[in-house]
C-alpha cells in the first residue's frame, strides 16, 4: 500500500511519528511525505490537505493520513477533491468503519485532540482494513460518487 502523509505546523510532530511508523510497516510499499517538514513552515492546512487528496485521486497513492490541530480542516479540504472520501477519526471503531462502510481513502487526525500512542494504534489498525466492493455498503458509497459526477 502506498500512503501519503501531510500536516500543517500544528500536526507536523505527530505526522512525522506516523510517517516513521508507516515506513517501518511491512504492509506499506511507499510512504510519501508531502510536508510540512517542520513547525517553522507556516503553509496552511488546505494546501497540504488538497495536495495529498489530489495524490489519492490521481492514483499516485492509495491512501493518505493528514494531521492538523483538530483534523477538521484537513478533512474538509481533502473532501473537496473529487473522488476523495476523507474522515476525521480519533477512535478505533470509527477508523475501521470509515474504510469498511464508507471506503474512505483518507484518515485525518487532530494532534491537539489525541496523543501519539493512540494515533499510532489507530493508524496501524487502519492500514489493515479494506473495503469490500461486494458488500451492502458499496451501493451507498456509489450514490456519493454518482452525485459527485452528476
Ligand atoms: O482545522 C484546522 C486545524 O486544526 C489547524 O491546525 C488550526 O487552524 P487554526 O489556526 O485556523 O485554528
From TrEMBL:
The keyword Magnesium does not apply. It comes from the Bacteria. It catalyses: D-erythrulose 4-phosphate = D-erythrose 4-phosphate. Pathway: Carbohydrate metabolism; erythritol degradation; Carbohydrate metabolism; D-threitol degradation. Keywords: Isomerase. Gene3D superfamilies: Sugar-phosphate isomerase, RpiB/LacA/LacB (3.40.1400.10). GO terms for biological process: carbohydrate catabolic process; carbohydrate utilization; cellular response to carbohydrate stimulus. One of its GO terms (molecular function) is intramolecular oxidoreductase activity, interconverting aldoses and ketoses. It is an enzyme of class 5 (isomerase). Its EC number is 5.3.1.34. InterPro entries: Rib-5-P_Isoase_Actino, RpiB_LacA_LacB, RpiB_LacA_LacB_sf, SPI_LacAB/RpiB. Belongs to the LacAB/RpiB family. This is D-erythrulose 4-phosphate isomerase. The lineage of its organism: Bacteria, Bacillati, Actinomycetota, Actinomycetes, Streptosporangiales.
Amino acid at each position: 500500500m502506498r500512503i501519503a502523509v501531510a500536516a500543517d505546523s500544528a500536526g507536523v510532530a505527530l505526522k512525522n511519528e506516523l510517517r516513521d511508523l508507516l515506513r517501518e510497516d511491512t504492509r506499506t510499499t511507499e510512504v510519501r511525505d508531502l510536508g510540512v517538514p517542520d513547525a517553522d513552515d507556516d503553509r496552511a492546512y488546505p494546501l497540504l490537505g488538497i495536495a495529498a487528496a489530489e495524490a489519492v485521486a490521481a492514483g499516485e497513492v492509495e491512501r493518505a493520513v493528514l494531521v492538523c490541530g483538530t483534523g477538521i480542516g484537513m478533512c474538509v479540504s481533502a473532501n473537496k477533491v473529487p473522488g476523495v472520501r476523507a474522515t476525521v477519526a480519533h477512535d478505533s471503531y470509527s477508523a475501521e468503519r470509515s474504510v469498511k462502510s464508507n471506503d474512505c481513502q483518507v484518515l485525518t487526525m487532530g494532534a491537539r485532540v489525541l496523543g501519539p500512542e493512540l494515533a499510532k494504534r489507530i493508524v496501524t489498525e487502519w492500514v489493515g482494513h479494506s473495503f469490500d466492493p461486494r458488500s451492502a455498503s458499496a451501493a451507498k458509497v456509489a450514490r456519493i460518487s454518482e452525485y459527485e459526477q452528476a
